[in-house]
Amino acid sequence: MIKKWIEAYSRVFRYKSKLKQRLRELDVYNTSFVAVDLELTSLNPSTTQITSVGYVSGRGGCIDLSSCGYHVINTTADLGQSPVIHRLTLDILKKGEALDEALHAFAPHIKQQVLIFHNAKLDLTALNSAFKQCAMPKMDVVYVDTLQLALYQLNKQHQVLPSNSATLSVCRQRLDLPAFNEHNALDDALATHQLFLAQLSELGVSKSDTLDCLYHTGAMGYVQLGGA
């Protein structure tokens, strides 16, 4: 039992050390980021399937709209309430791409940039499952979660968080960002990227800072997609 605890602690220590070192190598405003959003069939990480992927890149505090990518996935999974929420019906999905084709188109962005998510845990779990399903090469990913950045700020202001205070739309409203069309993967990715830039300003991050300035917020992470 003690041996397992020591091994687990060692893994966590190595993970934190590797993440900190990587973040110290990345200047906030000289790093390429890609905001990613997945539309999923459910919120259950163990069974959810991807129905669409949206992403958009940026660097130096600017978003490059020419970098936008959007892929609808051909899936026969149980859609649940997904057609109502995301407006992706079976007819639309049947005309979509194969999952492996979409992942191969998206993979170069993962290799070259730091990923931005709003609720990274759910999307990364779905991406990891998709990578394994399609036998994609393992890829190391550094990411930032705008949801966790929001919670970090909110926990400094409230003992008990207000209901739904960390949704993407509410986080944007709190920082005076305009309303957007929710539940489309590309629109959500763009909205998440805009939120991240506003959060950097809110946190007082300067052009001379490296990404380890965000480590204490708990919003930075490092994972291997397709790994065990």
From TrEMBL:
Pfam families: RNase_T (PF00929). SUPFAM superfamilies: Ribonuclease H-like. It comes from the Bacteria. InterPro entries: Ribonucl_H (IPR013520), RNaseH-like_sf (IPR012337), RNaseH_sf (IPR036397). One of its GO terms (biological process) is DNA metabolic process. Keywords: Exonuclease, Hydrolase, Nuclease. One of its GO terms (cellular component) is cytosol. GO terms for molecular function: 3'-5' exonuclease activity; nucleic acid binding. Residues 32-205 form the Exonuclease domain. PANTHER family: DNA POLYMERASE III SUBUNIT EPSILON, PROTEIN NEN2. This is 3'-5' exonuclease. It comes from Alteromonas portus.
